[in-house]
Amino acid sequence: MAAGPYETHDYDVVVIGAGGAGLRAAIEAAGQGARTAIVCKSLLGKAHTVMAEGGIAAALGTVWAEDNWSMHFRDTMRGGKLINNPRMAEIFAREAPERVLELEEWGAVFDRTNEGLILQRDFGGHRYARLAHVGDRTGLELIRTLQYRLIYLNVDVFMECTVTRLLTDGGRVGGAFGYRRATGGLMVFRCPAVVLATGGFGKVWKYTSMSWESTGDGIALAVDGGAELIDAEMVQFHPTGMVWPPSARGILVTEGVRGDGGVLRNAEGKRFMFDHIPEFFRAETADTMEEAERWRTDKKNNRRPPELIPRDEVTRAIYAEVKAGRGSPHGGVFLDIATRRSAEDIKKRLPSMYHQFKNLAGLDITKEPMEVYPTCHYSMGGVRVDADTAASTLPGLYAAGEVAGGLHGANRLGGNSLSDLVVFGRRAGLYAAQYANAMTARPAADPIQVEDAARMLLAPFERSGNENPYDIQRALQECMQEHVGIYRDEAGLKKALDEIAVLKRRAQQVRVSGTTAYNPGYHLSRDLYSMLTVAEVVTRAALERKETRGGHSRADFPNVDPVWGKRNVIVKKVNGQFQLTNEPVPQMSTDLTPLLEEKR
Amino acid sequence: MATSDRNLRVWRGDAGGGEFHDYTVPVFEGMVVLDALHHIQATQAPDLAVRWNCKAGKCGSCSAEVNGRPCLTCMTAVESLPADNPVVVTPMRAFPVIRDLVTDVSWNYEKAKEVTPFTPGPKAADGTRRMLQEDIDRVQEFRKCIECFLCQDVCHVIRDHEENKPKFAGPRFFVLLASLEMHPLDTADRTEQIKQDAGIGFCNITKCCTEVCPEDIHITDNAIIPLKERIVDRYYDPVLWLWRKLTGKSSGS
To answer: Is the ipTM of this structure higher than 0.85?
Structure first.
């Protein structure tokens, strides 16, 4: 099949991905006068952000006036087990309130307090009720608000287009190559700056809360382009995904259920989280049910319930309960909101959860407990970026949102993702535009790279092999679920690497039939490349970090190691091979240090 | 897990035409139509075009027609469909086919741009934006919309009348217009737009849109009828009509 002709476009900034981070970046870049395009794999408004439920964390202080950015900073750092980039966490906590109010200015309709201000809800790891929300569909509100801000601006939107290669020119970004799904037409974007806002990679696991798009394209694009990755081993398994029926396995059950008072129980009916309070959070966690209940209305004199310690801890606790034989009939635990709030209250505060369980599981959550088990949900690690500018280590390449790493350290707190999107989405768009606007000699899109990218994309039509891309995807998901899941060990990780190597070879034999126009098998053959890249990077990074911290639990190294607590794992591709190093966590400025020391 | 087989009859083709293809898939507990389509892709027809994202009823991508009824394939349980007939899956009829079950919904994105955007007035004296929950409940109902475009698909004004598309916005955009018109902070006046550009007069409130809405938005009762009432108040109120005649002013308010 002949490559080309190519549909060619010239821009200053091309944003890849149209979730919260990509939309916010494009809005900002256009506002800076940069000729801006946004390229997305799906239709506008369908990106994974739409699935975010519980809320957007920002120290607005509308419910608890005591709250402020420095406490949000502290909670974010502690939730991340202190390997976060402290400057990123500082910028994040300082700017999040401004970004939330900006959404309101652009038409977002958050739930209100009695005084008519933005209502905030409790969530794990946050000392005060801090999540602005709209029932349990906050992501939809965020994406719709940004979408309807964007469409009136001078931004070209390329829907259902997939970028498969970053083009470089002399060690900096020169453009991007991709294809248009509806026609199969090949596309070249000539641009000095690219913002990666491609989201996460949960689809590499079998049980995940993530949508089909989450194949880690941005990770593959960045590392192939020469950019560095950070802490790729830090994958969040959200404590509460659906377990039954099989069709719904992995679908998210919002942490808002626990934020609003829901409790976890094992098969014996015991509220087991009191047995799993880690030393790190003991001083700030209630150790009696009475105190936990009092905290709902008096946060000053009581400590938060153990159901609301950070996600990594709750996930390990659920794993341990099920492993000890105290699981629910389908191998999870029970999440009970029915006995905690009135039916009317549940339907008002958690409408999506009510409908999700009713439609998919035939279960009324106002009457019965839900069955839940951890599900792959988020990647803390990602493209290594400068804290202030969101610039990657490849000049001209910026990254924001889930594809970027550093802010969340070893574990992300609930609600911190949506504010991450708008804080660093804006910064990425701003600095990408400034970089492009300041450019005097524009880089070129190398025709040799374009031809190579086209050849690689179209290769599955011409091969003699007979592998089905769906078989390889399923095998990869099963491998990662088994060996690189909640708990990992050296033997399993090495086995995973062997299997990934075999799957990479098999992927070279994938053959697709039909035409290039809207052909899911063809599309998957390219997604497999991203997924296999992610799988290898995560597994290698997981082998490197010999300790248990945050989203990375090692059965063979079950404890936190203070030496590793000061290191970030860095991955880079050198001569086609992944090279791993570890570097010190960036130094915290002296004015931030006391904020971490401070106790309740 | 109890397993049995079900037959699916899936329309396949492109803008040039197409035909039904029959497939048999094993059914497992809780299986939805989208699961069945995925099974066909993975084992029998890797090039079967299906648009989907979240498979959790939140993104509104997987809209199609199952046994003739517009629905989200990810929220339609196979067990809920009559077992004695094949499950018939066809693309949304109101939009041009790209391939198989995927349609070109770009018309909706063009219509969106015609709506006057959110236009807030000045902030309160203390720099805040205050809105009471009871004043935003109705707007929040409209903002639940996931843009699945099933209401557009079922709407008989455009379903078999391509010629009406330029002058009619469809239920989705009446919901959007209502969400803006009833937003306590918004100051823009879209009444003329709703009447002229969006063509709300075409709607004769058959409520088909409300019936297919997966988010249970009361599109007809809560969005369309109140908007129609605003048009009536503005353009057909006899007192205002007389006022305009006498003063030459366009509005009585």
So the answer is: yes
> Is the predicted pLDDT of residue B3 greater than 80, yes or no?
no
The alpha carbon of residue B151 and the mean position of all alpha carbons in its chain are separated, in whole angstroms, by 4
Q: Which amino acid is at A236?
A: Q
The answer to whether A567 is a known catalytic residue is no
Q: How far is it, in rounded angstroms, from Cα A16 to Cα A11?
A: 13
Return the CATH number at B80: 3.10.20.30
Residues B222, B147 share a domain: yes
- Domains in chain A: boundaries: 241-374, 449-561
Structure tokens at A437: 């606007």
Q: Does residue B252 lie within any of the structural domains?
A: no
Q: Is the Cβ–Cβ distance between A40 and A159 less than 8 Å?
A: yes
Question: How far from the centroid of its chain's Cα atoms is residue A506's Cα?
Answer: 28
* Interface contact flag, B140 A109, Cβ < 8 Å: yes
- For domain A241-374, the CATH architecture is Alpha-Beta Complex (3.90)
**A100 token code pair:** 């939330």
Tokens 């910026």 map to which residue? A398
Q: Which of B103, B137, B164 is the last residue of a domain?
A: B103
Dihedral class, residue B157 (left if φ above 0, else alpha if ψ from -120 to 50, else beta) = alpha
Q: What are phi and psi of B66, to 5 degrees?
A: -110, 120
Q: What pLDDT score does B242 carry?
A: 81
Are A196 and A399 in contact, with CB atoms under 8 Å apart?
A: yes
A238 assigned to active site: yes
pLDDT tens-digit map of A50-106 = 999 999 999 999 999 999 999 999 999 999 999 999 999 999 999 999 999 999 999
Q: pTM of the predicted model, to two decimals?
A: 0.96
Low-confidence ranges of chain A (pLDDT < 70): 1-3, 598-600
Q: Which residues is A487 bridged to in the sheet? A: A553
**CB-CB under 8 Å, A105 with B53:** no
Burial of A439 (0-12, 13-18, 19+ CB in 10 A): middle
- List the domain range (segments joined by +) for residue B98: 4-103
Q: Which two tokens stand for residue A502?
A: 């075999």
Do both B54 and B172 map to the same domain? Answer: no
| Predicted local distance difference test score (pLDDT) of residue A220 | 98
* DSSP assigned state of B85: S
Structure tokens belonging to residue A525: 């053959």
pLDDT at res. A599? 55
Per residue in A162-179, pLDDT (tens digit) is 999 999 999 999 999 999
Q: Nearest-5° angle of CA A500, CA A503, CA A506?
A: 160
Do B30 and A247 lie within an 8 Å CB cutoff? yes
Digit-coded pLDDT (tens) for B60-86: 999 999 999 999 999 999 999 999 999
A449-561, which class in CATH? Answer: mainly alpha
For residues A348 and B31, give the distance between their C-alpha atoms in angstroms, rounded to a whole number: 28
Q: How far is A147 from chain B (nearest CA, A)?
A: 10
